[in-house]
């Protein structure tokens, strides 16, 4: 009888989905062929958008002597191709670390090496030692853009497909149109597209590995999750923004096993094994290891660079942190604030680990690092933005509000890169897709206070856009407009961080979900 009942439920669910597809839903033309076909259509559109953005300028285009991030990535290909692996992180006559020296973990260096092989195959001049500095030929730029596009297609896109399959399995309520919309929100994230395919970076690799690790956790493949997240950490050290969430959730799950010590040991061995393989060329001496580590933590640059919407940069208008405290003291203060703001989220997941709580934990952990850690960049907002997009179905307003302000926080950077046109185009595309007709818009906001506050901040944002593009800042305060943008965005990020921490703890009120997660595995 139970089996017949479950078959009837499945049949009813399939019939409901069919009725929904034929019922005038705004996404029916994408979803009618199934989720795999939907993903392929959205992915193809996402690739076209990335190609269109890549036709615009990049960081440091035509701006000698050091150019920008585009030149940094190209230079790493040049260095890794022509120098022995042990010399990649060492200052020498052949490797001047003051000129875009490698400052990411070894996996990024290996990626640069393989991409360098690709460039050397088609255009050797673009990666020749010394003579290729500042290389900006048309073919060289085309090949460089292709390396980012292929990285996105080979790492980030498959990871998103894996996540969506896992996220909507196991009885989660969600129509086909919801899944298609969710895929679009992740793959068409305007911030990631603008930074990777406009400004020029490879965040799609580390974030793709992280998404794969998250999907593995949600599907109870914890060993695979440890392997993938270890790779993410070894590609970009900023992936550590998510480390407290992974640690606390997996520890909470281990404590619910019959043999928790064995589970912890297995996970630890996977992590140590992965790190050992990636770091193998440098494990012959402590000096080599320390040399690489010194490049990964450039504390001499100060507690922040440029204008970033975090606590340190925003409050520095009133409190001159760099003058009041030494770098060593600031490191300790920022470490203390980062850890203390992570702890509530970590305790919640150790106490009652759940899949939904894990996603909120990732967001809260990344928020803590972004708002309070040492040496945060504008582009670091991509890290808290990742779990926000993964939670887009659960938190549509949070997703929309966070994405818009994450975009705005990077506006000065993108404006310097001459990416204003793709910035506004992708903002408009995001707005249109976010308001595409689907079942989620059955309820509308009726709280008048919230409507007023939302309208007020939208008006401030639009006004600052116009002011930044049309007016000159007073000579006495040359960075006034950037400071106002950072203040506005910081207020939003801080408020959202408080909300999501509270929301994570409120998950304890869901007894059914808690009971499921507390079962011995």
Order of helices and strands: HHHHHHHHHHHHHHHHHHHHHHHH
- Round the Cα radius of gyration to an integer and report it: 24 Å
Give the overall silhouette.
globular
Q: What class, by secondary structure content?
A: mainly alpha
Unreliable stretches (pLDDT < 50, length at least 5) are 1-24
Number of strands: 0
Strand content: under 5%
Task: Name a few traits of the molecule.
521 residues, mainly alpha, 24 helices, 68% helix, 0% strand, globular, disordered N terminus
Characterization of this structure:
By secondary structure, the chain is an all-alpha fold. The chain is 68% helix and 0% strand. It has 24 helices and no strands. Helix 11 (243-254) runs parallel beside helix 16. The longest helix has 30 residues, at 138-167. Residues 1-24 have low confidence and may be disordered.
Characterize this entry briefly.
The protein is mainly alpha-helical. Helix content is 68%, strand content 0%.
Give the topology:
Blueprint: H1 2-21, H2 28-31, H3 35-54, H4 69-82, H5 106-122, H6 138-167, H7 176-187, H8 190-200, H9 203-218, H10 222-235, H11 243-254, H12 260-279, H13 286-296, H14 311-315, H15 321-324, H16 327-351, H17 355-372, H18 382-390, H19 396-409, H20 411-416, H21 420-434, H22 448-470, H23 480-506, H24 511-518
């Amino acid at each position: 009888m139970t089996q017949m009942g479950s078959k009837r439920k499945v049949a009813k669910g399939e019939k409901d989905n069919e009725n929904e597809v034929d019922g005038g839903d705004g996404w029916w033309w994408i979803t009618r062929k199934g989720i795999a076909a939907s993903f392929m259509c959205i992915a193809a559109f996402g690739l076209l958008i990335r190609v269109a953005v890549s036709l615009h300028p990049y960081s440091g285009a035509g701006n000698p002597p050091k150019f920008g991030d585009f030149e940094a990535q190209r230079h790493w290909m040049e260095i890794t191709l022509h120098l022995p692996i042990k010399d990649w992180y060492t200052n020498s006559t052949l490797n001047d670390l003051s000129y875009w020296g490698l400052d990411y973990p070894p996996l990024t260096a290996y990626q640069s090496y393989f991409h360098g092989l690709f460039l050397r195959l088609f255009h050797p001049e673009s990666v020749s030692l010394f003579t290729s500095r500042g290389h900006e030929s048309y073919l060289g730029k085309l090949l460089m853009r292709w390396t980012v596009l292929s990285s996105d297609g080979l790492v980030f896109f498959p990871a998103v497909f894996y996540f969506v399959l896992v996220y909507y399995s196991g009885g989660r309520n969600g129509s086909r149109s919801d899944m298609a919309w969710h895929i679009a929100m992740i793959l068409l994230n305007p911030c990631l597209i603008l930074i990777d395919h406009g400004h020029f970076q490879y965040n799609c690799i580390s974030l793709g590995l992280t998404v794969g690790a998250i999907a593995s956790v949600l599907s109870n493949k914890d060993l695979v999750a440890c392997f993938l997240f270890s790779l993410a950490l070894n590609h970009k050290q900023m992936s550590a923004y998510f480390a407290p969430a992974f640690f606390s959730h997996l520890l909470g799950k281990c404590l619910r096993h019959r043999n928790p010590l064995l589970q912890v040991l297995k996970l630890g061995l996977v992590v140590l094994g992965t790190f050992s393989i990636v770091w193998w060329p440098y494990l012959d001496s402590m000096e080599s290891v320390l040399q690489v580590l010194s490049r990964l933590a450039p504390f001499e640059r100060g507690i922040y660079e440029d204008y970033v919407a975090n606590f340190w940069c925003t409050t520095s208008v009133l409190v001159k942190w760099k003058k009041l405290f030494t770098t060593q003291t600031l490191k300790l203060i920022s470490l203390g604030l980062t850890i203390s703001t992570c702890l509530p989220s970590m305790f919640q997941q150790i106490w009652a680990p759940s899949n939904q709580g894990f996603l909120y934990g990732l967001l809260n952990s990344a928020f803590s690092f972004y708002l309070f850690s040492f040496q945060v960049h504008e582009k670091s907002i991509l890290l808290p933005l990742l779990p926000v997009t993964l939670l887009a179905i659960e938190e549509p307003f949070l997703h929309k509000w966070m994405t818009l302000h994450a975009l705005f926080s990077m506006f000065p950077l993108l404006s310097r890169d001459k990416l204003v046109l793709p910035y506004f185009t992708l903002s408009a595309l995001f707005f249109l897709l976010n308001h595409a007709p689907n079942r989620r818009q059955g309820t509308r906001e009726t709280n008048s206070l919230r409507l007023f506050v939302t309208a007020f901040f939208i008006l401030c944002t639009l006004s600052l856009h116009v002011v930044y593009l049309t007016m000159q800042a007073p000579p006495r305060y040359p960075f006034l407009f950037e400071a106002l943008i950072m203040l506005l965005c910081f207020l939003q990020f801080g408020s959202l961080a408080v909300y999501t921490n509270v929301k994570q703890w409120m998950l304890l009120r869901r007894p059914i979900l808690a009971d499921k997660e507390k079962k011995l595995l």
